[in-house]
């Protein structure tokens, strides 16, 4: 086995071993913030797997960890599933601290993404293959029915830009930043009131096109300055959206 193969195997194993703990912590925070209240049924394994971008076995391990802590209970049968256990005394006292921690973590990830993704967009515009740049524009026509599909399309778009630039190190940095940010963050947005971000008449397909069109067209035209600027604007807007969702939890105190 080559050194690179050994390193890849070790890295993959480490991520897989840690991922269930990350998912468990994200769900733990979501429960603590009141997003899933006592007696509420958690999304299915399939739904959680799609939302987090991890395997169903990873979700199963995470839920088992929460069950061992007494935070959830699982029953079998047609009406079974995993539900949040009754609230324990003093459980809401940590909500403000948890929200503050998530807000700080979100700031750190968004600052990092602002440091790397605008430049990735510039590279995609200036030296990306024509087929890769056209594919980014083609993505804008994708039907996006719900939040889960939005997340998958959004990820495909951002990673498509990072890959098109031809810098493997930068593409890996973008991939890891998104994976680490969204595995933890997606539990927070499940069941959130997205009306704070999108008007009721605006569907996720329209939102995806409107938020990414300027970037895609700048990349297609080969305008590195515009691609970099539009990506920076998009990330600032995304940060504001996430903060608006976090404000929902702060308002519950």
Q: Would you give an account of this structure?
A:
By secondary structure, the chain is mostly helical. The protein is 71% helix and 3% strand. It has nine helices and two strands. A two-stranded antiparallel ribbon has the order 1-2. Keywords: DNA-binding, Transcription, Transcription regulation. Pfam families: FCD, GntR. This is FadR/GntR family transcriptional regulator.
How would you briefly describe this protein structure?
71% of the residues lie in helices and 3% in strands. It has 253 residues and is mainly alpha-helical. The protein has a two-stranded antiparallel ribbon with strand order 1-2.
Strands, helices and their partners?
Elements lengths: L2 H30 L12 H8 L3 H13 L3 E4 L5 E4 L10 H33 L2 H10 L7 H18 L3 H22 L14 H18 L2 H28 L2
Antiparallel strand pairs: 1-2
Organism: Streptomyces aureus
Protein name: FadR/GntR family transcriptional regulator
Keywords: DNA-binding, Transcription, Transcription regulation
């Amino acid at each position: 086995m080559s050194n690179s193969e050994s390193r890849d195997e070790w890295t993959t194993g480490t991520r897989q071993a840690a991922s269930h703990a990350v998912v468990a912590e994200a769900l733990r925070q979501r429960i603590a913030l009141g997003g899933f209240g006592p007696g509420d049924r958690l999304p299915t394994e399939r739904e959680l797997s799609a939302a987090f971008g991890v395997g169903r076995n990873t979700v199963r391990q995470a839920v088992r960890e929460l069950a061992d802590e007494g935070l959830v209970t699982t029953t079998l049968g047609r009406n079974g599933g995993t539900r949040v256990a009754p609230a324990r005394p003093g459980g809401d006292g940590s909500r403000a601290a948890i929200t503050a921690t998530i807000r700080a973590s979100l700031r750190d990830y968004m600052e990092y993404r602002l440091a790397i993704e605008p430049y990735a967009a510039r590279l995609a515009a200036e030296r990306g293959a024509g087929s890769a740049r056209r594919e980014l524009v083609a993505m804008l026509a994708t039907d996006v029915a719900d939040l889960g599909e939005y997340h998958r399309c959004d990820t495909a778009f951002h990673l498509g830009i990072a890959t098109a630039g031809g810098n493997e190190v930068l593409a890996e940095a973008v991939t890891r930043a998104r994976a680490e940010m969204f595995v933890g963050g997606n539990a927070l947005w499940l069941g959130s009131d997205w009306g704070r971000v999108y008007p009721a008449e605006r569907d996720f397909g329209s939102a995806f096109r409107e938020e990414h069109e300027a970037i895609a067209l700048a990349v297609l035209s080969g305008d590195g300055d515009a691609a970099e600027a539009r990506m920076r604007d998009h990330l600032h807007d995304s940060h504001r959206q996430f903060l608006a969702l976090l404000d929902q939890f702060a308002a519950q105190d």
